Amino acid sequence: MEVDGVTKRMRLDKMLANMGCGSRSEIKTVVRQGKVSVNGLIVKDSGLQIDPKADDVEFDGERVRFRDIVYLLMNKPQGVVSATEDTRERTVLDLLKPEDRLLQPFPVGRLDKDTVGLLLLTNDGQLAHELLSPRKHVDKTYEALVRGTVGEADRQAFAAGVTLDDGYVTMPAELAVVRTAPGGDEDPGPVSEISLTIREGKFHQVKRMFEAVGKKVLFLKRVAMGPLKLDEQLAPGSYRELTDEEVNALKTHRNSGKE
Question: Are residues 81 and 37 in the same domain?
C-alpha cells in the first residue's frame, strides 16, 4: 500500500490474505508449518511487518506478487453487461478469476450488452474518473457494421455533430467507411463497414448517431480508448493485465487531457 509515494508496511498475514492465499486463520497455520518465507528466510510469525512491494514473499513454494491496484484489459463478449453486479444478467466481473476480483475492479465506462471489444477494468478510481470526464475528451474508436450505404454526407454530418433523439448535439466525430457490401438473402440491402471515433460517451451514443442519419447499427466493437488498443489475441470473454507501458500511456494521456 502506498500513501504519498511512500510504501506502508503491512502484516504478513494481511498481505497474503489480500492476495488470495487464504483466510487469516488458514495463513497463520501455514506460517506455523514453516511454509512461508520472506527474503529467503522461513518465518513463523504471521504478524510480521513487511514491505509488501520490496520484500520477496513465498507462500508454500510459490512467489506472491503484491499489488494493490489492478488494471485489466478485457475483450468483452456479447451477452454480458458492463456492471459490477446485476440481479438478472451476467456481468463482466463474472468473467474474472476469483483472485482477480479480490481488489474489486470495476469497468471504466459501459459497453452495451450486445457491444463487444475493449473494456478496461480497474480499482484506480482517479484514473477512471479522468478517462471518463467529459472535459478530457478521450477518444473512443469503434468498428461497426451499419445497414445502409454510409457515405460522404454522413461523414460530414458526424464531423459537424448530429442531433440525437433527445435534442443533444454530439461533439464532432471522425467517421470513415471501410467498405460497403450488398446484403445477404435474408437481409437485403447494403451493409457498410465503418470506423468511428467519438470523444464523449452518451447512452447508446454510436447507435443513436446512426439512427439520427437514418441508419441502423448491426454490430459494434470498441477497438481503442485513448492510447489503449484492443489486444486482438484476446478471445472474446478473456482478459489480461495491462503492461507497464500501457498503464504509463494511460496516465500520461490522462494528465495531458484537455479541461
Answer: no
